[in-house]
Specification:
Helix content of chain A: under 10%
Number of strands of chain B: 11
Number of strands of chain A: 11
Order of helices and strands of chain B: EEEEEEEEEEE
Number of helices of chain B: 0
Shape of chain B: globular
Strand content of chain A: over 45%
Oligomer: heterodimer
Largest sheet of chain A: 7 strands, mixed
Structural class of chain A: mainly beta
Order of helices and strands of chain A: EEEEEEEEEEE
Radius of gyration of chain A: 14 Å
């Protein structure tokens, strides 16, 4: 079955610790994205990547870092510099329509709930 | 003004009712529009894309009004299973960012 997997489902972090959230997809999608969702709010873009070894900051990149060494994988590290990291983190992927003005729909993984203790 | 705005609701409707949501967007150059559904504590899932000519998928109809810069979602014959948050998604075209922008969602509660 093709899809996106995220792990772990729940993650607890002590203040001052860095943690890494995993995201893997086998949809052969070029583009991958990380979002954060806080209760009662919409999704906010953290980082996105159009191609291997390249990524772009989204709207709230401060305190986060990413890597894209493989097409299938786009891990997100929440660093100690992120002041309020407790949230629901969602990874998504899509076909990247390079050169076109339209955008393709994104498919989401099941998410990771991060809680800072 | 928010880039994508939705009435948060909740919309409480009885089973079998017809309900409609609107979503306004700020950038007149936007070209891609979607409705996603998100169940409580789950990931968003694509409900339907919104095309210029409008489109229908069973009980769901989506419309785009470029002149007034809004999209709508109509649900006919509501089912209990339609209870969820509906997210409006638009591409906001600017030079520095190539990604979709999500609204905060409209919550629908269908009651027996």
């Amino acid at each position: 079955d093709g899809g996106i997997t995220q792990s772990p489902k729940y993650l607890f972090r002590k203040e001052g610790q860095n943690v890494t959230l995993s995201c893997e997809q086998n949809l052969n999608h070029d583009a991958m994205y990380w979002y954060r969702q806080d209760p009662g709010q919409g999704l906010r873009l953290i980082y996105y990547s159009q191609i291997v070894n390249d990524f772009q900051k989204g709207d709230i990149a401060e305190g986060y870092s990413v890597s894209r060494e493989k097409k299938e994988s786009f891990p997100l590290t929440v660093t100690s510099a992120q002041k309020n990291p407790t949230a629901f983190y969602l990874c998504a992927s899509s076909i990247w329509a390079a050169g076109l003005s339209s955008y393709n729909e994104q498919f989401f993984g099941p998410g990771t709930r991060l809680t800072v203790l | 003004r928010k880039e994508v705005e939705q009435d948060p609701g909740p919309f409480n409707v009885p089973e079998g009712a017809t309900v409609a949501f609107n979503c306004t967007y700020s950038n007149s150059a936007s070209q891609s529009f979607f409705w996603y559904r998100q169940d409580c504590r789950k990931e968003p899932k694509l409900l339907m894309s919104v095309y210029s000519s409008g489109n229908e998928d069973g009980r769901f109809t989506a419309q785009l009004n470029r002149a007034s810069q809004y999209i709508s979602l109509l649900i006919r014959d509501s089912k209990l299973s339609d209870s969820a948050t509906y997210l409006c998604v638009v591409n906001i075209k600017d030079t520095g960012r190539r990604a979709l922008t999500f609204g905060s969602g409209t919550r629908l509660q269908v009651q027996p």
